[in-house]
Structure formats: C-alpha cells, structure tokens
Amino acid sequence: MCADASDGTHVVTAFLRHRGDVLLLRRSDAVGTYQGRWGGVSGFAEGDPDEQVRTEIREETGLEPGDSVSFVRSGRPVTVDDPDLGREWIVHPYLFDAAHREVDLSEEHDAFEWVSPTELLGGFEETESDEDALETVPELWSAYERVAPTVRSIAADDEHGAAALSVRALEVVRDRAGLLVAERAEYGDDPEGEWDELAALAGRLLEARPAMAVLRNRVNRAMADAGEHAADDAIGAPEVLDAASAGLDRAILADSDAAAAAADRLEGTILTLSRSGTVLEALREGEPSRLFVAESRPEREGVTVAEELAGDESLECPITVHTDAAAAHLLSREAIDRVVVGADTIRHDGSVVNKTGTRGVALAATREGIPVSVVAATDKVSTREEVNLESGDRSAVYDGEASLDVANPTFDVTPADCVEEYVTERGALEDEDVGDVVAQLRELEDWRE
Asked: Can you count the helices (H) and strands (E) in the chain?
C-alpha cells in the first residue's frame, strides 16, 4: 500500500509490546514536531507504510523486525487534524511484540519507558502533579485502540497458545477499565454502570475460547479480586483496572515460574510438539542434548518453534523437525528420554486438552516407557466437567470439490494415566493435587452470582 500525500501527511506509528506493556519514546529537540512529547515508534510514510514501519523500528530502537520484534497486526488509519501546525496527519498504527526491553535510541528521542497502555489516557502512575503528567503526541490512544487486543482477535487467534491468549484477555479488561476511569473526568463516577459494562465484557471473554481454561480462570480472578478490594461494595472501573493489572503481572510470573520448574527436568533427548510459550521458555532455560519437534499440522507451528530454538545461541543442541505421523516411529527408534508438552486445559480428572497430536504422542510414549511431562501454570486446570473441543477450518484438510465430510479437530484429550507429572509454578503436582486446584479456582467464579 502506497501513501498518497494528497489527502494528508501519512505517518506510521508502531506500538512495541512486551509482557503487557508498550514502549513509549520521548521526542527530542532533533525532530521537527512535538518535541518533548511521548509517542510510539514513528516516522513519515513516504512509500509503503508496511515497509516504512519496520525501517523506523530498526532505526529508532535498534531492534530488528523478524528477529527481536515480531509483527502482530496493523489497524485502520487514524486521521488527526492539528490546527496549530495547519496539518492533517494520517496515522497508520501497528502492533509488534518485542522479545526483550533493551532499546538503543536514535537522536530523535532522548528517553524511553515501558508502560501500561492505559497510561496514555492520563499520565504515568507515579507522577505527583499535572505538570509532570505524561504528554503524548495527538490521538496516541486512538491509534493504540486500532491495534489493541479485542474479544474478536482473541477468538480468531490460531497462532498463540492458551497462556498467551489469557494475557491478551486481561489486557482487554485492563484497557477498557482504564478508559472508563479516564472518562470519569467528563462523565462523572458511575460504579454500577462501569461494573455492568466490564462484567459483560468479561463474560464475552470467558466464552471466546471454550477449550482454554486458563483464560476463564484468569479473567475470573481479576473480576473476583476487584470485588474483594472495593469499598462499600461499590465495584467500579478503578477496582477492575487495578485487579486486571495485578492479574497480568501474576499470570506472566506464574508462566515463567512454571517454565523454570520444568527447565530443571529438561536433560537428555526431548520430544515436543505444538507451540507452548511456557514449554519454549523451559527449553531455552533447560539443558537438552537433543530435540525432536513435531511440525504440528495444519498451521505447522512446531516448525516455527524449531526455527526459533535453532536461532537461540544459548541453546546448543541438534534439533530435528519431523511430521506428526512420524512421532510414534521416532519414539520407538530414538533414545528419547522425555516427552514435554504444554496444555490448553488440564481437566478435573487429570486428563489434558492440548493441540491435536498430543494424545497420539503420549500414548506412543507410554507404550515405549517414556515419561510425559505437561508444563502449565495451575490456572490451566479446568473447573468444568466437560470441555468443548474446538475444530479448525475444513479447507486446511481438504479444499477440493468432492462430496466429503472433513474432520479437523484442533484439540484432543490425553488420558491422565499417560502423564507422569504436571509441572507448574508450584512445582510438580500429583493427580490428587489437581482436585485441590479445581476447588480453589471454583471459588473465583462466584463474582458472577
């Protein structure tokens, strides 16, 4: 897409996200407009905005798109009329995920901060006066809203695991609560109305991905915690904002702690499949001597995992990618020490819902006497007796013209007796421990009553 300057001055703005926060840069005296104001990674779109935004990221942060930074989505342009400058800006917003927070600023900026996006609405939390409040470039929040996660984007996401999508869900709640807090300055306080709106939003998120218990549990915890910290039962946007923000920090820490606990077990030859962010982190922290990675059709996210691990200089071991169908054969022929998988859901009876292919691998591993470790935070334990297993697009299996029925299940269920251990942020759980976690998580559901 080429930018046509006849309808305004086209610019790109990229929001780099890491662990729920976004990167803001303060514009220096070296730039021509908005000196001293905070914004995203930005620049004039003299040609294709999709190419220009990657150039700006590279030049302004030192981060390399495709390596340290991965594209998430772009949004509809935002038109910004600035009468003081006599210019109309056409802002093309983008969202990227950053692998870390190390930034090398260019001369165009003199400071940077990683902040919650809600701070775009009213300043940094630590400011003590209006004079110190965060001043952004015009309509920065509007640009962010065009690329921020939504219920729809979470429901449609087939690239990320359950833990990552649960964090996105908490971001949705946090962002909306933050906006309602900011709107109090104009419309006044309405705790009951705010709660009704946020509760309805949380309800939609709860059913967005029915197979992902972690999303429901983490949203439930945020809403339940908001009620516990409210004064005089007046639960409104501020309480939900605080609870969702705290829930984000807790969720990210739980996933990291589960990965760290699993890393201690990852020695020798490991076989894995699908894409679990927690397993990926565990593999990077562990010391496997060799890795086998099933490709995980139809999206083949296993290939992406293998490529990421192959590019990680800290992981020095041979990596073999193979078809899903070859997993049982390799388990019978290779000296594989352990199968390590993630989980979208751990059911109350200890069975595990995960990417299709997990059941077959676990059954084959059990046949060969190879232990199977499931790595997941305790929030992935389901409180429901039954789990709705999602299905993928039929065209991923068959797009011909013959009159055929197509089965393309996205998830399958691995029996509990095929799992040696559940490695969580609390360490390894036994089968009987799962029931205790279920009871704790069911208490969080009372906020809807």
From this structure: 12, 18
